[in-house]
Amino acid sequence: MSNTLLSIQGLTRRFGGLLAVSDVSATIAKGELVGLIGPNGAGKTTLFNLITGFTPPSDGTVTFDGQDVTGRKPWQIARMGMGRTFQNLRVFPNMTVFDNVSVGAVGAFGQSPWRALVNGGARSRAVSERSWEALERVGLTAQAGDIAANLSYGKRKYLEIARALATAPRLLILDEPAAGLNDTETAELADFIRRLHAGGVTVLLVEHDMGLVMGSCSRVIVLASGRKIADGTPEAVQRDPAVLEAYLGVEDDAA
Amino acid sequence: MDVNVPDARLMPDTLAPPAAFSGRGRRFAWTLLLLAVAFGAVPAAIVGTGSSYLAQIAITTMIFVILSASLNHVTGTAGLLSIGHAAFYGIGAYAAALLSTRLGLPFIVTLPAAGLIAALFGFLVALPTMRLVSIYFAVATLGIGEMIYVVLLNWVDVTRGPMGIRGIPPIELFGWQADTLLSRYLAVAVIAVACVWVLHRLTHSYYGNALRALREDDQCADSMGINVERLKIESFVVATFFAGIAGALLAHTSAYIAPDNFRFMESILILAMVVVGGLGSLPGAVVGALFMIVLPEALRDIGDYRMIAVGATMFLSILLLPKGMLAEGTALGFVRRSFSRGWATIAGGTPVGWK
């Protein structure tokens, strides 16, 4: 299974008596664009945090690119090539757009005070070029010198994506990127994500917006009450009675 | 895995790569100006007036420039509010004083030793406290600061307690003794400029960007691949190292130190310099130190009212310039432009990135 990029096995997380994520297994192959959906409280965010190392699992394993990363710290996992964005915009507000993005590149290249002291040189140039490239991808080069807090909401979303791209991720996890965007903006974003994917980036899209997921992803994983209830093509998932039940509830008169 | 530009509508008209940065002329202009003040104008004034009072103020200013610039590194840039900086200044001063008076070690040894011993204490303090955030970290540094002060005051066998340590030899390098006003000032100024240069290289770089990211949102920096805990410890160790260096300079230039030089009020004074100058701004920290040392002296004529005037000036400056006299954003742009540390200029002439 050398084509598998991310594999989670029996992932479980308890918070006291609450079973937030229960025995979830799934794989993502290189080059896929996978959606992860579920109603509010389904455990999407917890699962996200388990994969990225923010929350240690109570049980189960996370394997990334053939290596067991369970229990590793977020920065270690990020440096292995797992880039992410945040649901509630988290740019570095008092830093410029360019400096924001550079943090992703610095994380990927590593940093040390000695290098800053003795010679920035080649390493600094690599960080600069990587950051500029990421800004070009999202189309924010004209704002490179602006303070991030002054950007519009929509542009800050792209800034977050650029920062994640600057880490040169092999897997890019987007946490509800469409939250707070209007229909036109969501359509533009969908277009952007599809192009990103077409360019070779493996994407896991954690979303609430059904349209975005169903229209873009080749495969959709559905969570409900902490369990995986479906995993398949958008068409198959949309017809799945378990998914309909989770989203719409059981029809009383059927009983 | 290259992706083409995603969407023409999203693309502004600056597809061309930015112009490589060329600011060599201006860099030399500013560097020369600063060096001319530190090694030309001030020494000329000291020699010209022959005033030991003026020399003393110049030396004190240089020492506080190191303290303020180093506190800015950890508090302004990395965002860890430390209110015990004077304690590490004290550790450095006592280390230099004891090593030279008890063991007869020369300045060339006591200076780095003072920095390293202060940094070692900084490291030991940082290890358990780095998990604390904001005000909790501040309270921890306050506690450590008071603890160190009380030890200096009461460990009479070693520190001679409130009597302090006398007869600390002056700065001496390979037989050259800094025993005149001018040479004392010059020795301190050379070291202070070197310290500021090191802090300049550290903060005005992508390493500095990583430190600023810690301050802005450490969890987010973590998920960008930044080793948050290590960077926080590093920034605290660097800051305490330079505080120790400043302490050694105080010990060797004043010949006498006592615990009262390193009280909580000193920590607050250093913090005020950083805040008045501009949190996160290295040029601001230097200007803040100048302002807070020189202003009270300049106002000596109005006697006891001068501290009220100083307080009022601080209050007004923070009210009118809440981001400090040289705000971080302005200062970073200035450094990129005038010291040619930027990577490139984008359309509109704004410098971006670091060299």
UniProtKB/TrEMBL annotation, chain A:
Single GO cellular component term = plasma membrane
Q: Does the record carry Nucleotide-binding as a key word?
A: yes
Record keywords, A-Z = ATP-binding, Nucleotide-binding, Transport
> A Pfam family for this UniProt protein?
ABC_tran
Lineage top rank: taxon = Bacteria
GO molecular function ontology, one term from the record: ATP hydrolysis activity
Residue span(s) of domain ABC transporter: 6-250
Classification via InterPro entries: AAA+_ATPase, ABC_AA/LPS_Transport, ABC_transporter-like_ATP-bd, BCA_ABC_TP_C, P-loop_NTPase
- Protein name per the record: Amino acid/amide ABC transporter ATP-binding protein 1 (HAAT family)
Q: Which organism is it from?
A: Azospirillum brasilense
Lineage, highest ranks first: Bacteria, Pseudomonadati, Pseudomonadota, Alphaproteobacteria, Rhodospirillales
UniProtKB/TrEMBL annotation, chain B:
Keywords recorded for this protein, A-Z:
Cell membrane, Membrane, Transmembrane, Transmembrane helix
Q: What GO MF annotations does this protein's record show?
A: branched-chain amino acid transmembrane transporter activity
Q: Kindly state one GO CC term assigned in the UniProt record.
A: plasma membrane
The keyword Membrane appears for this protein = yes
Top-level taxonomic group: Bacteria
Note the topology in the membrane: Multi-pass membrane protein
Residues passing through the membrane, by range: 28-47, 53-71, 78-99, 105-127, 134-156, 182-199, 236-257, 269-295, 307-326
Report the locations given in the UniProt record.
Cell membrane
Q: Name it.
A: Amino acid/amide ABC transporter membrane protein 2 (HAAT family)
Native organism: Azospirillum brasilense
